[in-house]
Amino acid sequence: MIMRIPTLRLLLMLLVLTSAACKSDPDRSFSRRHVNDLPQILERGRMVAITNFNSTDYFIYRGQLMGYQYELLQDLADYLNIRLEIVVSNDLEETFNCLRMGDCDLIALNLTITKERIKKFDFTIPHSQTRQVLVQRKPDGWKKMTESRIERELIRNQLELGGKKVYVQQNSSYYERMQNLAEEIGDTIEIIDVPEEAETLIMLVADRQIDYTVCDENVALVNQTYYPNLDVQTAVSFPQNLAWAVNSGANELRKQINVWLAEYRKSTRYAVIYNKYFKNSRSASIMKSELYTLGSGKISEYDDYIKEYSREIGWDWRLLASLIYQESRFDPRARSWAGAFGLMQLMPTTARRFGVSQRSPANEQIRAGTKFIQWLDKRFENAIPDPEERVKFILAAYNVGPGHIFDAITLAEKNGVDSGIWYDNVDVCLLKKSDPKYYRDPDVKYGYARGRETYNYVIQVLERYEHYKNIIEEQPYPGS
């Protein structure tokens, strides 16, 4: 197995996160639970997809969810008019088990279609093409060498891989390809299969901990911008199609994805997304930024304040970070058309109540915002006794004001709806507050409300929170 070096923060983060997602069970064999096809997925209104967290598929930068697979999945969910739920794993065995056991509906990765995989799963039409390449280091002192001198030091003929040690991800098509290549060249290649995914192995090559790995060319080219001491020009395969996988038997789901993909791949939207993640010269600066979460563990430059004040209100700091991103995109100078300002977008009256102004520093803005959340929590404590459920009501009230939310609770009680549950209950009653029939009800005290905005606000904050939990582990405030 590969040696894990404690000083490699990124590697350790990936290992910790991977251990929490879709654990594999050797006793499961290849049995399946009931396969959810498109009708069942549409009925529940939610599609569960599993993908990697890395610098191309799914990551956070400046608090924003990004990634090639993430954006494609969002567009597919919009096409199907359902919500998207993402789970993550960088271990292919865990990923395959997640689909096989029905814990997810779709594997959204750059999967090479192989004979062995076809026996187990069904594949969509390709979403892209690439080839596999050897990732190796340029020779020491390469910056002062001529191109011809560098070329002589690198492997360019696959025959030269005979006797070499090549690290690849377990259960990946890279392992199978290297086995076939060894047969083709009539020599031994020492193939070391490890649980680490391709980008981690690329980093280890750049860090001089291993000499060679293999991955898809598009991913290799992106990573070469981060690590200029790498060479990725030696192909070890012909061009290959890359696709998503669904369970065998999920025929309607696969058919509908194929209909969507066939048109989507021709669109300008797809070209923009592909170029954004695989041909963007800004990729290196993103990964080197302190606000690239996979590398730094940070969501924003205000994380320490967010952790401190979230602890005072008993919230997960990642939830508070999601709210702040929703409000201001972490811009302390943000100002809305209605006069709300700062990181927490407090209205002037609320800001004065909690002792801040537009000139207040970021930590004071966050302190005041959490004091407001604390005040809202007390307002709803009796009406909504369940703390987890109460968070949804607090988020809604933060957006539209507590009066409108109490009106929605009143409407729920009058119409036989569970007034202590937000989703599909009180949130629906809030939507009705844009209808004169309801906002003119004598028991409705605060009149008309644009409920759709608040309805979406709660969903967006909580969905981003789930994404933040996918990618960054909970970290206590320093000193706690």
List the helices and strands and how they pair.
Layout (H helix, E strand, L loop, with lengths): L8 H11 L18 H7 L1 E6 L7 E3 L2 E3 L1 H13 L2 E6 L3 H9 L5 E7 L2 H6 E3 L4 E3 L1 E6 L9 H7 L11 E5 L3 H13 L4 E5 L3 H9 L5 E5 H10 L3 E6 L4 E8 L3 H14 L3 H11 L4 H6 L4 H4 L6 H11 L3 H12 L19 H6 L8 H19 L6 H14 L1 H13 L7 H10 L4 H4 L11 H21 L9
Parallel strand pairs: 1-4, 1-5, 9-10
Antiparallel strand pairs: 2-3, 5-13, 6-13, 7-13, 8-11, 8-12
Helix pairs in contact: 14-15, 14-17, 15-22, 17-18, 18-19, 18-22, 19-20, 20-22
Total of DSSP H or I helical runs spanning 4+ residues: 22
Task: Give the CATH topology of the largest domain.
Answer: D-Maltodextrin-Binding Protein, domain 2
Query: What's the β-strand tally?
Result: 13
Strand content: 5-15%
Global mean pLDDT: 89
User: How many strands, what sense, and barrel or not for the largest sheet?
Assistant: 6 strands, mixed
Q: What CATH architecture of the largest domain would you give?
A: 3-Layer(aba) Sandwich
- In total, the number of domains comes to 3
Share of helical residues: 40-55%
Secondary-structure class: alpha/beta
Cα Rg = 25 Å
What would you call the shape?
globular
- The top-level CATH class of the largest domain is Alpha Beta
**What is the rounded distance between the termini?**
35 Å
The fourth-level CATH homologous superfamily of the largest domain is: Periplasmic binding protein-like II
Uncertain segments are 1-30
